[in-house]
Request: fold
Amino acid sequence: MLALLLAFALIHSGGAALRSRAEARIGARAWRLIFAALSIPSAVVVIGYFLAHRYDGLQLWNLQAVPGMVPLIWTLTAISFLFLYPATYNLLEIPAVLKPQVRLYATGIIRISRHPQAVGQILWCFSHALWIGSSFMLVTCAGLIGHHLFAVWHGDRRLKERFGTAFDTLRDSTSVVPFVAVLDGRQQLDWRELLRPAQLGIAIAVGVFWWAHRYIPIGGMVFLHSRLEGLLS
Reply:
């Protein structure tokens, strides 16, 4: 699992590091399509392997029968998705229908944390580790959180190179740890900034994932009997 996460990190973060040079050579749309063509299949492999092996190793705890655990896990997961996917405000840039651009975001969820994806990943890991309780899950969480902590440094470095003093201003007025900049007076929340159409899409996605969870055992078994599982084993 750690090897798969490392491979995904090299593809995903490596692709982000190459973005400026690649866009200068082949254009933003072409690079986005190449980046997606590499990142999405690698993510699918990681997810498939995780679903097939999530209960492997030692069962360290089992809290699934504790009253209130199901709504707690889904509440934490829903919140994590709001942090994980804040850039979906520009949905047409994802398939390169519109020209993909790098922007400095200074409003909305960025007021809470400058790196919301890292916050969302940590919340997702916490909720799913609480539910699954296996040693495999803890290893997975260590790999995911480690990658996102690296991405915090890597993302700041790339934005500094691209935007210079404008990024310095953003960095000084925000925080990585959620709500720190709000509590120390550098930011003031405006909840209207969080009410975007894309948030409705995220809410729908959470509902779809809730419904689709019943098919996770089937998906795990399909992956276990696939050729890809045989190669990874």
Summary: The chain has ten helices and no strands. The CA atoms of residues 227 and 233 lie 10 Å apart. The chain has a mean pLDDT of 89. The longest helix spans residues 135-163.
